[in-house]
Design a protein that fits this description.
Layout lengths: L1 H32 L5 E6 L2 E22 L5 E6 L6 E2 L4 E5 L2 H36 L5 H34 L1 E3 L4 E3 L9 E2 L8 E16 H12 L12 E5 L10 E10 L5 E8 L11 E18 L3 E3 L5 E6 L5 E12 L2 E6 L6 E5 L11 E4 H13 L1
Parallel strand pairs: 1-19
Antiparallel strand pairs: 1-18, 2-9, 2-13, 3-5, 3-8, 4-7, 5-6, 7-9, 9-12, 10-11, 10-13, 11-12, 13-17, 14-15, 15-16, 16-17
Helix pairs in contact: 2-3
């Protein structure tokens, strides 16, 4: 009888212990299921002075171009330059056969001497008749004829002098010279070729490449927006730096010499809606050649309180709008619609939507969304700590 009563009591005790253990295990399991909020790496948005730079496409063009043509007709006796060399203004390039022009020069010199002799004779006759007219030894008509002959002879001397000058110029033109400094190209003719005065085909082309022009195009809408921002006080002009131009070469490298903006066209292209600009760039090493595609960076204004944030913190929606995630009150993620103005390296210049002091999330974006609590992690502080540990 005693045995039958003890077994139920023992079973009851075991059941109680099992229930207690099950409750404790359930509590532990529940505690293990509560995960901490995900980490969100952020950068604090700051307002800082920023120079607004426009990057514009452009092509290089020579500072000066001279197509060399003969000014007299003749046969080329000799080419006096090496193709591709640098030449200076006044340097002889071609020598033409000048025999005919030398003969014309000698004839013009003889004509001038003859005219001068006739003038001297007419001058003596005029002086003699002038004295005789006072004693009425010659008539008034004879005196007037002597005066007229003297005037005619002086005009003949002047005409002969002009023909002599022309003959000398033609002789000089038989030596074809470089009109400008620059790099000379390929000669289209060789010795023995006949050339004619002011022919259509150039003998050779000279291009001055130091300095060199860069022709740029800018959207008129961008230019108008910049001017409006400056007028409203959103931008301030950068003074002397406003005319500074920096070039980026096709491979992405920055050209070492900075230039200046020369002018902006006062007309808008009807087809493209762009305005033409021209920059002047030093080219002492000849690294820039005509026809190269480059990108020019022009500082056009400075914003005193600009918001510049990393591009990875800005997302694009299917409709093209830009959004950002920030850490709000109680570390809750908030979604912001922002407007970007332009890309600046790996950053965006923000027009609106973000303010100084906002905590912009840049890391861990795949695990979080609006309304989710997060654990904030200052990205810049972590980098500084890691660098300090590495240096230590």
């Amino acid at each position: 009888m005693r045995t039958s009563f003890r077994l139920p009591a023992a079973a009851l005790t075991v059941s109680f212990l099992l229930a207690a253990c099950g409750e404790q295990s359930g509590q532990q399991a529940a505690g293990a299921g509560q995960m901490p909020p995900p980490q969100a790496g952020y950068v604090e948005v700051t307002a800082q002075p920023f120079t607004l730079v426009n990057e514009l496409p452009g092509r290089t063009t020579p500072y000066q171009v001279a197509e060399v043509r003969p000014q007299v007709t003749g046969i080329i006796e000799e080419r006096l330059f090496k193709e591709g060399d640098r030449v200076k203004a006044g340097q002889p390039l071609y020598q033409l056969d000048d025999k005919l022009y030398q003969a014309a020069l000698a004839s013009a010199e003889a004509d001038l001497a003859n005219a001068q002799a006739n003038r001297e004779l007419a001058k003596l006759t005029d002086g003699r008749y002038d004295k005789l007219s006072k004693s009425e030894a010659v008539s008034q008509q004879e005196l007037e004829d002597a005066n007229a002959n003297l005037a005619v002879s002086e005009a003949q001397v002047a005409a002969a002098q002009a023909r002599l000058d022309t003959a000398r110029i033609n002789v000089e033109y038989t030596t074809i010279k470089a009109p400008i400094n620059g790099r000379i190209g390929r000669s289209s003719l060789t010795a023995g070729a006949l050339v004619t005065a002011n022919q259509a085909a150039a003998l050779v082309t000279i291009r001055q490449l130091d300095p060199i022009y860069v022709d740029l195009t800018q959207s008129y809408e961008e230019l108008r927006s910049l001017r409006a921002a400056m007028a409203n006080g959103e931008l301030i002009t950068t003074g002397k730096d406003q005319a500074t131009v920096e070039l980026a070469l096709p491979d992405g490298t920055v050209y070492p010499h900075k230039g200046t903006l020369q002018f902006s066209e006062y007309a808008v292209d009807e087809q493209t809606g762009t305005v033409a600009l021209r920059a002047l760039i030093p080219n002492p090493d000849g690294a820039l050649l005509p026809g190269m595609f480059v990108r020019a960076r022009l500082p056009q204004g400075e914003r005193e309180k600009a918001i510049v944030v990393p591009q990875k913190g800005i997302s694009r929606q299917p409709n093209g709008s830009a959004t950002a995630l920030v850490i709000g009150e109680n570390n809750i993620v908030e979604k912001r619609t922002v407007k970007t103005e332009q890309a600046v390296g790996g950053n965006w210049l923000i027009k609106s939507g973000l303010n100084a002091g906002d905590k912009l999330i840049v890391d861990g974006l795949q695990k979080i969304g609006p309304g989710i609590p997060v654990t904030p992690v200052d990205v810049n502080a972590e980098k500084a700590s890691a660098q300090s540990s590495a240096e230590g």
